[in-house]
Design brief:
Length: 502
Amino acid sequence: MIRLYDTKVREKVDLETLERGKVGMYVCGPTVYNYIHVGNARTFISFDNIRRYLMWRGFDVKFVQNVTDVDDKIIGKSLEEGRPAAEVAAEYTEAFIEDMRRANVLDPDVRPKATEEIPEMIELIGELVDGGHAYEVEGDVYFSVRSFPDYGALSGRNVDEMEGGHRELRADGKGVEDRKRDPLDFALWKAAKPGEPAWESPWGMGRPGWHIECSAMSRKYLGLPFDIHGGGGDLVFPHHENERAQSEAACGCTFANHWMHGGMLQINSEKMSKSLGNFKLLREVLETTRPEVLRFLMLQTHYRSPLDFSADRLDEAASALGRIENAVKNLDWLLANAEDIPSPLDLRALMDRTRQAKMGFILAMDDDFNTCKALGEVFDFIADVNAQTAGKTLSLSDVPPVRDARALIVELMGVFGIDVEAAADAADEASAYPAEVVALAADIAGYEGSDAAEAVDALLAARADARAAKDWARADAVRDGLCGLGFTIEDTPQGARVTYEG
């Protein structure tokens, strides 16, 4: 049974879905006025991992993520740059999608844009007004917080204690507080201002407030209630508290069965902010960091815990991921060089360990999607497989269980959106053999081609011939020449194996 931490009840609970084998998920998307930063990316990658795991476990997941393409920040950016708000939103929506795909985040099944769902928002606001949960003042429409007795249950706040100044609840804009019946009430619809995007409504020209869009979109594309509502921890209050209040006030039913929220990201143990000069855009990070490494770094911390992001931690993640990639490459080499000999392995133990590793991974992820513990299961499994196979020549009879072990490593990392086969290939391309090895092969081995990989093979063959003839000087010349170019030679029962570190 999958268990998750539910923000509303403040404890781990069993995942209970409305339909057996199906999960409806809504995760709040970006407000598109700029490129997203790595803190935003942490939330999106975390929920991508959760979604991928649910799919791997056999659930049919419908994943909805909105794009907020009308907002005060977008309007501010448009005024600052002297261009239409729609143009700003379109540019950064496209950039967001591009960045997510570069980070190997799956596209949502539905990606509604706020500007394309205005009728649904107007309909929902009308229901709230008709039900006595909202009221109109001079073209603005406000939600009456005190009309919903359960307000504050999600964030654990007491309405009476909010009275003194939680400004995040108040309507956007200035000079409107005295028009509201209660300082806590928040805007559902905002009357049009000169130069701002606006739509017709029963209350005059205007545009939606931020909170109403997610309520309208989730209701339209998932229905109410739905299974999981997710987002960053900074959205619990006021955004998700307001979403829940207005949705449940309108429908008289539960809005979302489970609420999940991710932890924040820090830069070198400090809060990320422009004022501190440590603000990092995702696309800037991906210019120097493989997406697999970034995803791996985020897996190393539980999704609900704060994550410390730094160059050192990226280096550590790259090194750790490299160990997994190398394990796969080592198994590939052993499988390719299997011989018709008696098995040197304990095959029963290897097959049992493979089953145990998969179960350990599932148990870790079933416990509130504990990716760091699941990664530990992968590393423990690799260590045990290495202990069985190190320094040995595989028998042909070993191939099926060893191949199954290799396949499990690839499969489990794939659950996290990391293709260790493709990542290993990328690492190989990044460390392509130097051109100088061709000249070395021509000088020592008489190689006449121009391909660096073929040149290395020619040198290894020449070294093998020299060792067989006890021509130690020539054999040492090959070894010293390759080592001088950054290669390492390992002599194994199957022959010499070369790696290149650059």
